[in-house]
Amino acid sequence: MTSTAPASVRQPRRDGPGGNGPDRDGAAPGADGTAGSGAAEDGAAEDGTGKDGAARPGRWRGAVAATRPFSIKTKLNTLVVVSVLITTGLVIVAFRTETQLRIITVFSIIASMLLTQLIAHSLTAPLREMTAASRAMANGDYSRRVRAGRRDELGDLAVAFNRMAADLEAVDRHRKELVANVSHELRTPIAALRAVLENVVDGVCEPDSETLRTALGQTERLGRLVEHLLDLSRLDNGVVPLNARPFEVWPYLSAVLRTAQMDAMAAGSRSRTDVHLHLAVSPSGLTACADTERLHQVVSNLIDNAVKHSPPGGRVTVSARPGAAPLSLELEVLDEGPGIPKAEHDRIFDRFNRGSAPSQKGKSGDGGTGLGLAIARWAVDLHGGRIRVVESPRGCRIRVSLPGRGRLRS
Predict the structure, then answer these.
(1) Is 149 exposed, middle or buried (0-12, 13-18, 19+ CB in 10 A)?
(2) Domain residue ranges in the chain
(3) Residues with Cβ < 8 Å from 109, sequence gap 6 or more?
C-alpha cells in the first residue's frame, strides 16, 4: 500500500468572529454584511410570504384552507343558504298569488330534500368508493385506487389514500421479493452442502480435506447470508445506533485493507488472493468524523465487490480526500473490472441485485449474496451521506460522501 499526498491542501473555511457568521440576535447577515431584520421576517411569516415575495408557511394558511371555495364546510353553508332562499321565495310567491301556505311548505320541503340528497350523494360517493377499496386491500389486493379529482377535503383524502395504497403495494411487493430471494439464496448452499454430505455418506467420495473444505465454504456462505439478513433486519427496525467520532483516515483504512487481505488468505481457495489492494489518502494526516464500525462495513463490502469483479492480477484502489465541510470525507473504491452499465447505476444498491456484469470467478466462488452493496448504502444513509456509481474510463468507481459531524443522523 502506498500513500499519495498533494503538495498543498486547501483547508475548509471556518467562520470566525470576523466572518459572516450569525449575529448575536440570530439575524443572518446579508450580502452587504448588514444584519437581517427579525421584524421583517416576523411580518413575512404572518402574511405567508418571504422577503423575496415567495409563498411561505404562515399562520394564515390554516384559515385560508378552511375557507377555500370548494370545501365541505362551504358546500354545507351553501345548502343552508339555498334552502332558506327557496323557502323565502316560495313564501313571497304565496303571498302574491294567494296560494295556500301548506302547499308552499310542501314544495319548500321537497326542494330542500332534493338539494340535500344531491349534496349528500356527492359527499358519500367517494367515501363508499374508499370503503370498497379498503375492503379489497384487507383481502390482499393493493392495486385498488380511488378517483382523486375533487377539490375539497375528500379530494385530499383520496390523494392520501392512493399514496397509502401505493406504499402498501410497494411494501407487499418487496416482502414477496425478499421471501423469494432469501429462499433462493438459502436453497443454493443448502443443496450444495447436502450433495457433498450425501456423497460422503454413500461412499462416492472420501471425507478428505478437499471435500470438507467444500462443505465449509457452503456453510460460510450461509453464515454470511444470515449475518447480512440480520443487519437488514436491524435497519428495518431502526435499532442500529450511530456512534460517530473523529478518527484518522490513513491508519483506519490501512487496518481495513489489512483485515481484508488476511480474510482472503485465511479463506484460501475460496477467495481471491491475486488482486492487489492500494490505498491513497490525501493529505496523509486527514481526519474525518463517522461511526468507524459502520464505515468498516461500507469499505469492506465495497472492497469485496471490487475484488470479485477484478481481472486476474488486477488492482483495487481505495482513495480518500477531505470533503467540503469540516471533518467530512470523500471515499472512492476503483477496480479494473468490466464496470457497471449506466442503466444499472441506481439499481446496483438494491437488495439481492448482483447486476449484469459477471464476476471473475477464478478460484473464488459463489458470487456473493447480493446484499453487500445494499448494506453499504444503508450505512451511508445512516450517516446522512451519499453513495453512488460515478463515471470511470475503466472498471467501476463507487464514491462515498460523508457529511462530517454537523449532519449526522441519530
Answers:
(1) exposed
(2) 72-141, 172-235, 241-402
(3) none
Q: What is the pTM for the complete model shown?
A: 0.51
Residue by residue, what is the 3-state secondary structure of 201-218? HCCCCCCCHHHHHHHHHH
Note the CATH number of domain 241-402: 3.30.565.10
User: 312 near 335, Cβ under 8 Å?
Assistant: no
Report the C-alpha gap between 53 and 49 in whole angstroms.
5
Residue-wise pLDDT tens digits, 10-27: 333 434 433 344 343 433
Residues 4-24 as b or e (16 or more Cβ within 10 Å = b): eeeeeeeeeeeeeeeeeeeee
C-alpha cell read off for 343: 442503466
Instruction: Say if residues 318 and 308 touch (Cβ distance below 8 Å).
Output: no
CATH number assigned to the domain covering 172-235: 1.10.287.130
Region at 327 (left for phi over 0; alpha for psi -120 to 50; beta for the rest): left
Nearest to 232 by CA among 348, 366, 332, 369: 369
Q: Which one, of 375, 250, 382, 384, lies nearest residue 325 by Cα?
A: 384
Task: Decide: residue 360, CB within 10 A, 0-12 exposed, 13-18 middle, 19+ buried.
Answer: buried
Contact 55, 49 (CB under 8 A): yes
Helix (H) or strand (E) holding 287: strand 287-290
State the cell numbers at 311. Answer: 481481472
pLDDT > 70? residue 350: yes
Instruction: Report strand pairing: 276-281 vs 315-322.
Output: parallel
Q: How many residues does the chain have?
A: 410
Question: Which residues are within 8 A (CB) of 256 and not within 5 positions of it... i.e. 6 or more apart?
Answer: 296, 299, 300, 303
H helix or E strand, kind and range, residue 401: strand 397-402
Give 294-312 pLDDT, tens digit per residue. Answer: 898 899 889 988 888 888 8
Q: Does the bond joining 283 to the residue before it have cis omega, within 30 degrees of 0?
A: yes
Q: Locate cell 448504502: which residue? A: 377
Write the CB contacts of 255 (distance below 8 Å, at least 6 apart in sequence).
none
